[in-house]
Design brief:
The protein is elongated. A hairpin with a 2-residue loop joins strand 3 and strand 4. The strands form 2 sheets. It has a 5-stranded mixed sheet with strand order 5-4-3-6-7, sandwiched between helices. It has a two-stranded antiparallel sheet with strand order 1-2. With about 375 residues, the protein is an alpha/beta fold. The protein folds into 2 domains: about 130 residues, no CATH class; about 230 residues. The protein has 15 helices and 7 strands.
């Protein structure tokens, strides 16, 4: 009974739209010729009707076959339909949203076909998503406020199809948090790696767009060369290296038999109650492991000032500011969304996907704040 009701409703709605568009086309032709059916046009320049032609128009109620009125000079598309338009704007929006929500280009066609009866090709889906290019351009050029307190920098790599074969393209990403807990993904750029020059390009772009850093309290990075660049662009701001990345670097050099103990001793440094106690924990780590893992200890000692910068921030924020986990969670969604695609056709398609994911996050965050940072404020 339910299926019969909705089937009848959709069928009647489809017929109503069909009659509406066809009457509208005929009325436009009558106005153009100067008379309606069964009227004479004496004394006027004759404009002859020339029957109809048919075209399909896809709506959310299914595919409608329209009879478009025409004369010998021209045809008359109903108002609201553009030349060469084959589907309603709502259907085009459905196709774009299905694609941007994580459905592959091939599967989108099957999903849309269940609703409209039209099988959409992967090429059509790609063509419709190109409408996002202008939105991507505006995102990259948007002015930024200078009210951010914390800046997180990290990167994610994706596979792109090149003439010479598949290659990885890195996306460098900037994530900002205000003192009231409001957050925003500020920028992303694609690069061949994470060199200091490429990070400098991203940070200079942030600066020129308005983020001059007068209220920045801390810049958190994954330990890439962007740290040195941040010191150049924002020289007065403290810098924090991510402890998750540092722990990974330490433990990959450790023997299996020592793994658990080295991990506990390293964790004791950032879990300390204060910076002096953290420094004492490092001295214990150095004394215990200097002989077995001298290079690991030396690198940790070299990076220790940037690894302990978070102790200068409010205590509520220590756990949040000692890693880049807040931005890594965004990368989880990026990887989930891009996994069905296996490999991007070009860099522009990467930009569209990254923009759509980040734009959705930014919209969600307009009414949601990071509670820990709000508490600290």
């Amino acid at each position: 009974m339910k299926e019969t009701f909705w089937g009848d409703l959709y069928g009647q709605t489809r017929q109503a739209w069909q009659r509406f568009f066809q009457l509208q086309s005929e009325r436009q032709r009558d106005r153009f010729t100067g008379w309606g059916w069964h009227e004479r046009g004496a004394g006027k320049r004759r404009r002859y009707r020339n029957d109809y032609y048919e075209r399909d128009f896809v709506t959310c109620f299914g595919t409608i076959r329209l009879r478009i009125a025409r004369t010998r000079e021209r045809s008359f598309l109903p108002s609201g339909l553009r030349r060469f338009q084959r589907r309603a704007e709502q259907v085009s929006l459905l196709i774009r949203e299905a694609f941007l929500r994580g459905i592959s280009t091939r599967q989108v066609g099957r999903v849309v076909a269940t609703l409209t009866g039209e099988t959409v090709s992967a090429q059509t889906v790609s063509k419709l998503t190109r409408d996002l290019d202008e939105a991507v351009r505006q995102f990259h050029q948007a002015r930024l406020g200078d009210d951010y307190a914390y800046l997180f920098l990290d990167g994610v790599s994706l596979r792109v199809r090149r003439p010479t074969g598949r290659k990885r393209v890195h996306m460098l990403v900037a994530y900002g948090v205000r003192r009231d807990g409001r957050r925003q993904l500020l920028a992303f750029v694609h690069s061949q790696g994470e060199s200091q020059a490429e990070w400098e390009g991203l940070l200079q772009d942030l600066y020129q767009r308005g983020l001059e850093g007068r209220h920045l309290g801390l810049i958190v990075t994954d330990g890439c060369p962007g740290l040195a660049t941040a010191q150049t662009v924002y020289p007065r701001v403290r810098h924090q290296r991510c402890w998750v990345h540092k722990m990974h670097n330490i433990l990959e050099k450790v023997r299996k038999s020592d793994y658990d103990q080295v991990k506990r001793d390293a964790q004791a440094i950032y879990l300390a109650e204060s910076r002096p106690r953290a420094e004492a924990a490092f001295r214990n780590f150095r004394a215990r492991w200097r002989r077995a893992y001298g290079s690991v200890v030396r690198r940790l000692e070299r990076d220790l000032p940037e690894l302990l910068s978070f102790f200068a921030m409010p205590r509520h924020l220590w756990r949040k500011l000692r890693t880049t986990n807040v931005i890594e969670r965004c990368f989880v969604e990026v990887r989930r969304r891009t996994r069905p695609m296996v490999c991007f056709v070009n860099v522009e398609s990467v930009d569209r996907i990254i923009y759509s994911i980040f734009h959705r996050f930014n919209l969600e965050w307009r009414t949601r704040t990071l509670s820990l940072i709000t508490q600290a404020a």
